[in-house]
Design a protein that fits this description.
The structure holds two protein chains of two kinds.
Chain A: H1 3-9, H2 11-22, H3 28-55, H4 58-77, H5 86-107, H6 115-146, H7 148-156, H8 161-185, H9 194-201, H10 206-235
Chain B: H1 4-8, H2 10-14, E1 18-28, E2 33-44, E3 49-53, H3 60-67, E4 75-80, E5 83-84, H4 90-96, E6 97-100, H5 111-115, H6 117-121, H7 129-135, H8 152-165, E7 170-174, H9 182-199, E8 202-206, H10 210-216, E9 219-224, E10 227-233, H11 234-239, H12 244-256
Parallel strand pairs in B: 3-8, 3-9, 6-7, 7-8
Antiparallel strand pairs in B: 1-2, 1-4, 4-5, 9-10
Helix pairs in contact in B: 8-9
The chains are: A mainly alpha, B alpha/beta.
Chain lengths: 252, 257
Amino acid sequence: MSLLAIILSFSFVMIAIFLSMAFKLGLGRDLIITSIRATIQLLIVGYILKMVFGFNHPLVVVLMLLIMITVAAKNAAKRGKGLPHIFWKIFLTISIVELITQGFLLGLQIVPATPQYVISISGMIIGNSMIIVNLFLNRLKGEVEMRKEEIQLVLSLGGSMKQSIYPILKQSIRSSLIPTIEGQKTIGLVQLPGMMTGQIIAGADPIQAVRFQLLIVFLIMSAASLTAIILGFLVYPVLFNKNQQLDIREWR
Amino acid sequence: MSNPEQKEDKWNQEIPEVEFINVHKTFVNQTENVSVLKGIDGKVEKGTITTIIGPSGSGKSTILSLCNLLQTPDKGEVRIQGKAVQEWDIQELRRRVGIAFQAAPMINGSALENLTLPARLQGKTLEDPNTYMEYVGLTEDLLTREAKELSGGQRQRLSLARTLVNEPSILLLDEVTSALDSISAHEVEELILRINREHRTTILWVTHDLSQAERVGDQTWLVMDGKLIEASPTKVFFSKPNDTRTKEFLDMKREYI
């Protein structure tokens, strides 16, 4: 794709800005900022990837992955503001998920161990995990606030912290996974997944592209489940104080 | 309680079932610190019923929640059977000091699942759920019903039965009859008195119903503005209160009736 083509494609944004002005939606500023931001971010990423692929050294790949996980964890940690060590818990969760999935992929030689594969697939897994963390924390907070009495009840009957929070934890894990599962139901029927589209445009055989996409679907479903479950069990103890009382006053 | 045997029992006299020693509790909300209890001192003897009355927001419910460590005192000490609440194994303390709430909250599921919950929490099975149902005056066929769909009176009985599964020696009651119609309220009241009689369960009973407090209490406490204004034998409390504020409170309440 030529640079000129990209500049021309910016006219789509102009249409959106024009519509926003015509209907006084007040989105003009956001549209411009988002476009510029996306442009700069992706250009930088493009050059970084080119560099990383050039080095073709495992340490560089690991460093790149660490940066990706850090950014994802930092973003998702906003949902858990006020919870002790929430950044590290998310960081640990995503790292474990990444290790397990990559371990499988590379260990069973499902994909070749090249930076191209590892980084692109990791990007999808880490990004998806970040969304799951967001959904999970959001839901957990809502559920705990709504079902406080139930938690108190179980505690008051001599239940442990885990026993008192378990039904809520389960519900939150389930809810946070629903969008991922639902999303896979119509996959390919309405829209073709981004990676598959990319491969097809780049000239790959659609059957090959589909096979790859299937791999990603399976990966993302297991990565999502792993994320919600691991984070759930890492996070619930901090919802209680040392006297086994539910205490989420600091969670904003 | 004028039980002659108990008076000779020195051990029981020396160690009260529940003891409050200069207890303070402050709640922190976004804007300010609210001092709910400002130095409570008091004793509750084994097997007695202590009714706790006072204006709403005076700290009555907080007093209860300190007894099973659902809240922690900021200053001072709450002792159960002579041992500070923080020194107990928390789960054991909460089984020994049961609580029943005004709303009689239920977990999702049937009445049976709710009734057996305390046993299941310990990894045990409840052998005789029917006995408990019978004891609190509920019929067996309710066991399969969704607990949240039971009537207020049925829920409160079920809630008491559930608490009894732990065989508590102390029972904390937080306005357990105030959401009920007068007939159910009366029946639940009778049930509690029976529990007290048959199991010698020590009861701390928060109520806003003055006639109930007078009817059921051995001792009555007046809590106002975070302080224990008066703690007297119930008869004395309602006939010849020691504190002028008690008199004023009773007079004011009676005017509304």
